[in-house]
Amino acid sequence: xxxxxxxxxxxxxxxxxxxxxxxxxxxxxxxxxxxxxxxxxxxxxxxxxxxxxxxxxxxxxxxxxxxxxxxxxxxxxxxxxxxxxxxxxxxxxxxxxxxxxxxxxxxxxxxxxxxxxxxxxxxxxxxxxxxxxxxxxxxxxxxxxxxxxxxxxxxxxxxxxxxxxxxxxxxxxxxxxxxxxxxxxxxxxxxxxxxxxxxxxxxxxxxxxxxxxxxxxxxxxxxxxxxxxxxxxxxxxxxxxxxxxxxxxxxxxxxxxxxxxxxxxxxxxxxxxxxxxxxxxxxxxxxxxxxxxxxxxxxxxxxxxxxxxxxxxxxxxxxxxxxxxxxxxxxxxxxxxxxxxxxxxxxxxxxxxxxxxxxxxxxxxxxxxxxxxxxxxxxxxxxxxxxxxxxxxxxxxxxxxxxxxxxxxxxxxxxxxxxxxxxxxxxxxxxxxxxxxxxxxxxxxxxxxxxxxxxxxxxxxxxxxxxxx
Length: 469
Hints:
This protein is of the alpha/beta class. 42% of the residues lie in helices and 19% in strands.
Protein backbone atom coordinates (compact mmCIF):
# COMPACT_ATOMS: atom_id res chain seq x y z
CA UNK A 1 0.00 0.00 0.00
CA UNK A 2 1.20 3.50 -0.70
CA UNK A 3 -0.17 6.96 -0.14
CA UNK A 4 0.55 9.78 -2.55
CA UNK A 5 0.67 13.49 -2.02
CA UNK A 6 -0.40 14.72 -5.45
CA UNK A 7 0.86 18.08 -6.59
CA UNK A 8 -0.82 19.39 -9.80
CA UNK A 9 1.78 21.42 -11.63
CA UNK A 10 -0.52 23.69 -13.65
CA UNK A 11 1.37 25.36 -16.45
CA UNK A 12 4.57 23.38 -15.95
CA UNK A 13 4.90 20.91 -18.76
CA UNK A 14 5.55 17.28 -18.00
CA UNK A 15 8.80 17.21 -19.95
CA UNK A 16 10.09 20.30 -18.20
CA UNK A 17 9.18 18.83 -14.84
CA UNK A 18 10.84 15.54 -15.58
CA UNK A 19 14.09 17.20 -16.55
CA UNK A 20 14.20 19.77 -13.78
CA UNK A 21 16.35 17.90 -11.27
CA UNK A 22 16.74 21.00 -9.12
CA UNK A 23 12.95 21.27 -8.75
CA UNK A 24 12.73 17.64 -7.65
CA UNK A 25 15.51 18.11 -5.11
CA UNK A 26 13.77 21.16 -3.63
CA UNK A 27 10.47 19.29 -3.30
CA UNK A 28 12.09 16.18 -1.89
CA UNK A 29 14.12 18.12 0.67
CA UNK A 30 11.05 20.11 1.70
CA UNK A 31 9.12 16.87 2.25
CA UNK A 32 11.95 15.31 4.25
CA UNK A 33 12.36 18.37 6.45
CA UNK A 34 8.64 18.58 7.07
CA UNK A 35 8.48 14.94 8.12
CA UNK A 36 11.63 15.35 10.19
CA UNK A 37 9.74 17.98 12.15
CA UNK A 38 7.13 15.30 12.81
CA UNK A 39 9.64 13.26 14.84
CA UNK A 40 11.32 11.51 11.90
CA UNK A 41 8.32 9.37 11.03
CA UNK A 42 9.62 8.78 7.51
CA UNK A 43 12.62 6.96 8.92
CA UNK A 44 10.76 4.84 11.44
CA UNK A 45 7.64 3.92 9.50
CA UNK A 46 8.17 4.49 5.79
CA UNK A 47 10.40 5.30 2.90
CA UNK A 48 9.69 8.49 1.01
CA UNK A 49 10.39 9.23 -2.65
CA UNK A 50 9.30 11.83 -5.16
CA UNK A 51 8.37 10.92 -8.71
CA UNK A 52 7.12 13.06 -11.55
CA UNK A 53 4.88 12.34 -14.51
CA UNK A 54 3.25 14.57 -17.11
CA UNK A 55 1.56 17.41 -15.30
CA UNK A 56 2.16 16.44 -11.67
CA UNK A 57 4.77 15.60 -9.06
CA UNK A 58 3.93 12.80 -6.66
CA UNK A 59 5.42 12.22 -3.20
CA UNK A 60 5.16 8.51 -2.45
CA UNK A 61 5.15 7.35 1.18
CA UNK A 62 5.53 3.59 1.43
CA UNK A 63 4.77 2.06 4.85
CA UNK A 64 7.38 -0.38 6.09
CA UNK A 65 5.08 -2.16 8.57
CA UNK A 66 1.81 -3.96 7.89
CA UNK A 67 0.06 -2.25 10.82
CA UNK A 68 1.12 1.13 9.54
CA UNK A 69 -0.19 0.24 6.09
CA UNK A 70 -3.64 -0.40 7.53
CA UNK A 71 -3.63 2.98 9.22
CA UNK A 72 -2.70 4.73 6.00
CA UNK A 73 -6.21 4.24 4.68
CA UNK A 74 -7.17 7.09 7.05
CA UNK A 75 -4.69 9.54 5.52
CA UNK A 76 -6.34 12.02 3.14
CA UNK A 77 -4.61 13.06 -0.06
CA UNK A 78 -3.09 16.50 0.19
CA UNK A 79 -3.05 18.76 -2.88
CA UNK A 80 -0.97 21.84 -3.57
CA UNK A 81 -0.86 23.82 -6.80
CA UNK A 82 2.84 24.48 -7.20
CA UNK A 83 2.33 26.63 -10.26
CA UNK A 84 0.34 29.07 -8.15
CA UNK A 85 2.21 28.86 -4.84
CA UNK A 86 5.65 27.37 -5.48
CA UNK A 87 7.87 25.27 -3.17
CA UNK A 88 7.12 27.26 0.07
CA UNK A 89 3.47 26.23 -0.12
CA UNK A 90 4.57 22.67 -0.83
CA UNK A 91 6.68 22.77 2.35
CA UNK A 92 3.71 24.07 4.35
CA UNK A 93 1.43 21.35 2.97
CA UNK A 94 4.00 18.67 3.74
CA UNK A 95 4.03 19.94 7.33
CA UNK A 96 0.28 19.35 7.38
CA UNK A 97 0.87 15.86 6.02
CA UNK A 98 3.52 15.32 8.69
CA UNK A 99 1.12 16.43 11.42
CA UNK A 100 -1.52 14.03 10.09
CA UNK A 101 1.02 11.22 9.97
CA UNK A 102 2.08 11.97 13.53
CA UNK A 103 -1.51 11.80 14.75
CA UNK A 104 -2.10 8.51 12.96
CA UNK A 105 1.23 6.74 13.38
CA UNK A 106 2.53 7.69 16.82
CA UNK A 107 -0.16 5.79 18.81
CA UNK A 108 0.69 2.11 19.11
CA UNK A 109 -1.05 -0.38 16.84
CA UNK A 110 -2.98 -3.37 18.13
CA UNK A 111 -0.15 -5.83 17.49
CA UNK A 112 2.37 -3.49 19.12
CA UNK A 113 0.16 -3.21 22.19
CA UNK A 114 -0.06 -6.99 22.42
CA UNK A 115 3.75 -7.15 22.64
CA UNK A 116 3.88 -4.27 25.13
CA UNK A 117 1.31 -5.92 27.40
CA UNK A 118 3.59 -8.95 27.74
CA UNK A 119 6.19 -6.76 29.50
CA UNK A 120 4.02 -6.70 32.63
CA UNK A 121 2.28 -10.04 33.11
CA UNK A 122 1.37 -9.19 36.72
CA UNK A 123 -0.96 -6.45 35.52
CA UNK A 124 -3.35 -8.94 33.92
CA UNK A 125 -4.36 -10.05 37.39
CA UNK A 126 -4.24 -6.51 38.76
CA UNK A 127 -6.87 -5.40 36.25
CA UNK A 128 -9.54 -7.77 37.66
CA UNK A 129 -11.35 -5.60 40.17
CA UNK A 130 -14.15 -6.67 42.44
CA UNK A 131 -15.69 -3.19 42.43
CA UNK A 132 -16.55 -0.58 39.83
CA UNK A 133 -14.39 2.56 40.10
CA UNK A 134 -16.50 5.52 41.30
CA UNK A 135 -17.34 8.22 38.74
CA UNK A 136 -16.05 10.86 41.15
CA UNK A 137 -12.46 9.52 41.01
CA UNK A 138 -9.70 11.42 39.20
CA UNK A 139 -6.30 9.73 39.01
CA UNK A 140 -3.30 12.03 38.40
CA UNK A 141 -0.04 10.23 37.64
CA UNK A 142 3.38 11.89 37.36
CA UNK A 143 5.77 9.29 36.05
CA UNK A 144 8.30 8.43 33.35
CA UNK A 145 6.82 7.84 29.88
CA UNK A 146 7.83 4.19 29.75
CA UNK A 147 5.98 1.23 28.31
CA UNK A 148 5.09 -0.22 31.71
CA UNK A 149 3.45 3.09 32.66
CA UNK A 150 1.31 2.76 29.55
CA UNK A 151 0.46 -0.77 30.72
CA UNK A 152 -0.36 0.54 34.18
CA UNK A 153 -2.81 3.10 32.79
CA UNK A 154 -4.32 0.55 30.42
CA UNK A 155 -4.81 -1.78 33.39
CA UNK A 156 -6.77 0.93 35.19
CA UNK A 157 -8.97 1.36 32.13
CA UNK A 158 -9.41 -2.41 31.75
CA UNK A 159 -10.65 -2.43 35.34
CA UNK A 160 -13.46 0.02 34.58
CA UNK A 161 -11.88 3.45 35.03
CA UNK A 162 -12.71 5.80 32.16
CA UNK A 163 -9.79 7.27 30.23
CA UNK A 164 -11.07 10.79 30.91
CA UNK A 165 -10.65 10.08 34.63
CA UNK A 166 -6.86 9.88 34.17
CA UNK A 167 -4.36 12.74 33.90
CA UNK A 168 -0.79 11.77 33.01
CA UNK A 169 2.11 14.15 33.67
CA UNK A 170 5.22 12.69 31.96
CA UNK A 171 8.61 13.36 33.50
CA UNK A 172 11.13 14.92 31.10
CA UNK A 173 13.46 11.94 30.54
CA UNK A 174 14.23 11.18 26.89
CA UNK A 175 12.87 7.64 26.97
CA UNK A 176 12.81 5.82 23.64
CA UNK A 177 9.04 5.82 23.14
CA UNK A 178 8.20 8.98 25.06
CA UNK A 179 6.38 10.67 22.18
CA UNK A 180 4.51 7.50 21.25
CA UNK A 181 3.38 6.80 24.83
CA UNK A 182 2.09 10.37 25.11
CA UNK A 183 0.39 10.24 21.70
CA UNK A 184 -1.24 6.89 22.50
CA UNK A 185 -2.63 8.11 25.82
CA UNK A 186 -4.09 11.15 24.10
CA UNK A 187 -5.58 8.97 21.37
CA UNK A 188 -7.58 7.02 23.98
CA UNK A 189 -8.80 10.27 25.63
CA UNK A 190 -6.48 10.46 28.61
CA UNK A 191 -5.40 14.00 29.47
CA UNK A 192 -1.64 14.45 29.07
CA UNK A 193 0.09 17.55 30.45
CA UNK A 194 3.52 17.72 28.89
CA UNK A 195 4.70 21.34 29.08
CA UNK A 196 4.86 23.86 31.93
CA UNK A 197 3.18 21.13 33.90
CA UNK A 198 2.78 22.95 37.22
CA UNK A 199 0.80 25.83 35.74
CA UNK A 200 -1.01 23.66 33.18
CA UNK A 201 -2.13 21.12 35.78
CA UNK A 202 -3.36 23.84 38.11
CA UNK A 203 -5.34 25.36 35.23
CA UNK A 204 -6.71 21.92 34.28
CA UNK A 205 -7.93 21.24 37.81
CA UNK A 206 -9.37 24.73 38.12
CA UNK A 207 -11.42 24.05 34.98
CA UNK A 208 -12.96 20.88 36.46
CA UNK A 209 -15.79 20.71 39.03
CA UNK A 210 -13.33 19.81 41.81
CA UNK A 211 -15.92 19.86 44.66
CA UNK A 212 -17.35 16.71 43.09
CA UNK A 213 -13.98 14.98 42.69
CA UNK A 214 -12.02 12.49 44.76
CA UNK A 215 -8.41 12.90 43.62
CA UNK A 216 -5.80 10.14 43.84
CA UNK A 217 -2.24 11.33 43.17
CA UNK A 218 0.45 8.87 42.07
CA UNK A 219 3.84 10.55 42.25
CA UNK A 220 7.50 9.72 41.66
CA UNK A 221 9.42 12.40 43.50
CA UNK A 222 6.87 14.32 45.60
CA UNK A 223 6.52 17.39 43.38
CA UNK A 224 3.02 16.52 42.14
CA UNK A 225 1.79 15.93 45.68
CA UNK A 226 3.30 19.20 46.89
CA UNK A 227 1.68 21.12 44.04
CA UNK A 228 -1.84 19.75 44.45
CA UNK A 229 -1.88 19.70 48.26
CA UNK A 230 -0.84 23.36 48.39
CA UNK A 231 -2.69 24.66 45.32
CA UNK A 232 -5.18 27.45 45.77
CA UNK A 233 -8.65 27.03 44.30
CA UNK A 234 -8.71 23.22 44.31
CA UNK A 235 -11.41 22.14 46.79
CA UNK A 236 -11.88 18.45 46.09
CA UNK A 237 -13.98 16.27 48.36
CA UNK A 238 -10.89 14.21 49.11
CA UNK A 239 -7.27 14.08 48.03
CA UNK A 240 -4.96 11.19 48.84
CA UNK A 241 -1.52 10.46 47.45
CA UNK A 242 0.70 7.50 46.64
CA UNK A 243 4.44 8.18 46.64
CA UNK A 244 6.77 5.63 45.02
CA UNK A 245 10.14 7.27 45.62
CA UNK A 246 12.20 7.59 48.82
CA UNK A 247 13.51 11.05 47.89
CA UNK A 248 9.90 12.05 47.28
CA UNK A 249 8.96 10.89 50.77
CA UNK A 250 11.88 12.88 52.16
CA UNK A 251 10.64 15.99 50.36
CA UNK A 252 7.09 15.46 51.60
CA UNK A 253 8.26 14.82 55.18
CA UNK A 254 10.21 18.08 55.18
CA UNK A 255 7.12 19.86 53.86
CA UNK A 256 4.84 18.28 56.48
CA UNK A 257 2.65 16.63 53.83
CA UNK A 258 2.74 12.95 54.75
CA UNK A 259 -0.63 12.57 56.53
CA UNK A 260 -2.55 11.68 53.37
CA UNK A 261 0.31 9.82 51.64
CA UNK A 262 0.62 6.09 51.04
CA UNK A 263 4.35 5.34 51.11
CA UNK A 264 5.33 2.66 48.58
CA UNK A 265 9.03 3.55 48.61
CA UNK A 266 9.44 1.14 51.55
CA UNK A 267 7.35 -1.65 50.03
CA UNK A 268 9.04 -5.05 49.63
CA UNK A 269 8.54 -4.86 45.85
CA UNK A 270 10.33 -1.48 45.65
CA UNK A 271 13.14 -2.73 47.88
CA UNK A 272 13.72 -5.59 45.44
CA UNK A 273 13.57 -3.22 42.46
CA UNK A 274 16.15 -0.82 43.94
CA UNK A 275 19.10 -3.07 43.15
CA UNK A 276 18.06 -3.33 39.50
CA UNK A 277 17.61 0.45 39.25
CA UNK A 278 21.12 1.02 40.61
CA UNK A 279 22.82 -1.57 38.41
CA UNK A 280 20.98 -0.40 35.29
CA UNK A 281 22.08 3.17 36.05
CA UNK A 282 25.73 2.19 36.39
CA UNK A 283 25.46 0.15 33.19
CA UNK A 284 24.01 3.15 31.35
CA UNK A 285 26.74 5.37 32.80
CA UNK A 286 29.54 3.06 31.68
CA UNK A 287 28.07 2.63 28.20
CA UNK A 288 28.97 6.29 27.53
CA UNK A 289 32.53 5.88 28.86
CA UNK A 290 33.78 3.29 26.38
CA UNK A 291 36.69 5.49 25.23
CA UNK A 292 37.50 7.05 28.59
CA UNK A 293 39.76 5.74 31.31
CA UNK A 294 37.71 4.18 34.11
CA UNK A 295 39.82 1.77 36.19
CA UNK A 296 41.45 3.57 39.09
CA UNK A 297 39.68 6.87 38.38
CA UNK A 298 37.90 8.73 41.17
CA UNK A 299 34.11 8.62 41.00
CA UNK A 300 32.13 10.47 43.62
CA UNK A 301 28.71 9.11 44.54
CA UNK A 302 26.20 11.51 46.09
CA UNK A 303 23.62 9.87 48.34
CA UNK A 304 24.15 6.51 50.07
CA UNK A 305 20.48 5.58 50.35
CA UNK A 306 18.52 2.57 49.20
CA UNK A 307 19.65 2.90 45.58
CA UNK A 308 22.92 4.74 46.15
CA UNK A 309 24.35 1.94 48.30
CA UNK A 310 23.80 -0.56 45.47
CA UNK A 311 25.24 1.89 42.93
CA UNK A 312 28.37 2.45 45.03
CA UNK A 313 29.08 -1.29 45.15
CA UNK A 314 28.49 -1.60 41.39
CA UNK A 315 30.82 1.32 40.61
CA UNK A 316 33.53 -0.13 42.87
CA UNK A 317 33.18 -3.53 41.22
CA UNK A 318 33.65 -1.77 37.85
CA UNK A 319 37.08 -0.51 38.94
CA UNK A 320 36.34 3.06 40.03
CA UNK A 321 37.82 4.54 43.21
CA UNK A 322 34.52 5.45 44.82
CA UNK A 323 34.05 8.21 47.39
CA UNK A 324 30.67 8.88 48.99
CA UNK A 325 28.90 11.95 50.37
CA UNK A 326 25.78 11.57 52.49
CA UNK A 327 23.88 14.00 54.73
CA UNK A 328 22.65 11.27 57.10
CA UNK A 329 25.13 10.38 59.84
CA UNK A 330 23.72 6.86 60.08
CA UNK A 331 24.16 6.22 56.38
CA UNK A 332 27.65 7.77 56.44
CA UNK A 333 28.58 5.29 59.15
CA UNK A 334 27.14 2.46 57.05
CA UNK A 335 29.17 3.54 54.01
CA UNK A 336 32.32 3.68 56.13
CA UNK A 337 31.67 0.15 57.38
CA UNK A 338 31.39 -0.91 53.73
CA UNK A 339 34.87 0.47 53.08
CA UNK A 340 34.18 3.77 51.32
CA UNK A 341 35.83 7.13 51.92
CA UNK A 342 32.90 9.19 53.22
CA UNK A 343 32.21 12.94 53.41
CA UNK A 344 29.43 15.12 54.76
CA UNK A 345 29.06 16.97 51.45
CA UNK A 346 29.99 16.54 47.80
CA UNK A 347 32.00 19.76 47.95
CA UNK A 348 34.27 18.38 50.69
CA UNK A 349 34.80 15.19 48.73
CA UNK A 350 35.62 17.02 45.48
CA UNK A 351 38.14 19.23 47.29
CA UNK A 352 39.87 16.22 48.82
CA UNK A 353 40.67 14.58 45.47
CA UNK A 354 40.19 15.65 41.87
CA UNK A 355 37.33 13.54 40.57
CA UNK A 356 36.69 12.87 36.89
CA UNK A 357 33.29 11.28 37.46
CA UNK A 358 30.27 12.11 39.65
CA UNK A 359 27.22 9.86 40.08
CA UNK A 360 24.12 11.37 41.67
CA UNK A 361 21.75 9.25 43.75
CA UNK A 362 20.35 11.77 46.21
CA UNK A 363 17.19 12.86 44.38
CA UNK A 364 17.93 16.38 45.64
CA UNK A 365 19.95 19.32 44.26
CA UNK A 366 23.50 18.11 44.78
CA UNK A 367 25.93 20.48 43.02
CA UNK A 368 26.11 24.13 42.01
CA UNK A 369 27.66 25.60 38.90
CA UNK A 370 30.69 26.80 40.87
CA UNK A 371 31.33 23.23 42.07
CA UNK A 372 32.24 22.21 38.52
CA UNK A 373 35.54 24.01 38.97
CA UNK A 374 36.55 21.35 41.49
CA UNK A 375 36.35 18.57 38.91
CA UNK A 376 39.07 17.11 36.71
CA UNK A 377 39.21 18.22 33.05
CA UNK A 378 36.62 16.56 30.79
CA UNK A 379 34.55 15.44 33.77
CA UNK A 380 31.39 13.37 33.30
CA UNK A 381 28.31 13.56 35.53
CA UNK A 382 25.42 11.10 35.61
CA UNK A 383 22.41 10.75 37.85
CA UNK A 384 19.56 8.40 38.70
CA UNK A 385 17.31 11.40 39.30
CA UNK A 386 16.43 14.56 37.39
CA UNK A 387 17.00 16.61 40.55
CA UNK A 388 20.69 16.14 41.38
CA UNK A 389 22.10 18.32 38.60
CA UNK A 390 19.08 20.27 37.32
CA UNK A 391 20.27 23.43 39.08
CA UNK A 392 23.65 23.17 37.34
CA UNK A 393 22.12 23.09 33.85
CA UNK A 394 19.66 25.89 34.68
CA UNK A 395 22.42 28.11 36.08
CA UNK A 396 24.69 27.51 33.07
CA UNK A 397 21.90 28.59 30.73
CA UNK A 398 21.71 31.92 32.58
CA UNK A 399 25.48 32.45 32.90
CA UNK A 400 27.01 33.98 29.77
CA UNK A 401 30.42 32.77 30.89
CA UNK A 402 29.44 29.18 30.16
CA UNK A 403 28.94 27.78 26.69
CA UNK A 404 26.50 24.89 26.49
CA UNK A 405 25.34 22.56 23.74
CA UNK A 406 23.64 19.20 23.50
CA UNK A 407 24.19 16.01 21.54
CA UNK A 408 22.65 12.53 21.88
CA UNK A 409 24.78 11.81 24.97
CA UNK A 410 23.65 14.86 26.94
CA UNK A 411 24.54 18.46 27.76
CA UNK A 412 28.08 19.78 27.36
CA UNK A 413 29.27 22.75 29.40
CA UNK A 414 32.51 24.61 28.66
CA UNK A 415 34.22 27.61 30.23
CA UNK A 416 37.82 28.77 29.85
CA UNK A 417 38.95 25.32 28.75
CA UNK A 418 37.04 23.44 31.45
CA UNK A 419 34.62 20.92 29.98
CA UNK A 420 31.90 18.92 31.68
CA UNK A 421 29.43 16.44 30.18
CA UNK A 422 26.11 15.88 31.96
CA UNK A 423 24.86 12.59 30.58
CA UNK A 424 21.16 12.37 29.61
CA UNK A 425 20.87 16.16 30.10
CA UNK A 426 20.98 15.56 33.84
CA UNK A 427 17.97 13.21 33.83
CA UNK A 428 17.92 9.58 34.96
CA UNK A 429 20.73 7.84 33.10
CA UNK A 430 19.09 4.41 33.30
CA UNK A 431 16.03 5.71 31.40
CA UNK A 432 17.87 7.63 28.66
CA UNK A 433 16.68 5.99 25.45
CA UNK A 434 15.06 3.18 27.45
CA UNK A 435 11.92 1.36 26.26
CA UNK A 436 10.75 0.16 29.63
CA UNK A 437 11.82 -2.00 32.54
CA UNK A 438 11.02 -5.64 31.70
CA UNK A 439 12.32 -6.95 35.03
CA UNK A 440 10.18 -9.28 37.19
CA UNK A 441 10.86 -7.21 40.31
CA UNK A 442 9.85 -4.00 38.60
CA UNK A 443 6.77 -5.68 37.12
CA UNK A 444 5.83 -6.67 40.66
CA UNK A 445 6.28 -3.08 41.82
CA UNK A 446 4.03 -1.70 39.04
CA UNK A 447 1.39 -4.22 40.17
CA UNK A 448 1.89 -2.95 43.74
CA UNK A 449 1.14 0.59 42.57
CA UNK A 450 -2.02 -0.63 40.82
CA UNK A 451 -3.05 -2.39 44.03
CA UNK A 452 -2.58 0.83 46.03
CA UNK A 453 -4.69 2.78 43.52
CA UNK A 454 -7.40 0.09 43.74
CA UNK A 455 -7.39 0.35 47.53
CA UNK A 456 -7.97 4.09 47.28
CA UNK A 457 -10.75 3.65 44.71
CA UNK A 458 -12.45 1.16 47.02
CA UNK A 459 -12.11 3.60 49.93
CA UNK A 460 -13.64 6.41 47.85
CA UNK A 461 -16.57 4.18 46.95
CA UNK A 462 -17.27 3.11 50.52
CA UNK A 463 -16.47 6.03 52.83
CA UNK A 464 -18.10 9.42 53.39
CA UNK A 465 -16.42 12.24 51.56
CA UNK A 466 -14.46 14.92 53.39
CA UNK A 467 -12.86 18.13 52.27
CA UNK A 468 -9.07 17.92 52.65
CA UNK A 469 -7.73 20.74 50.54
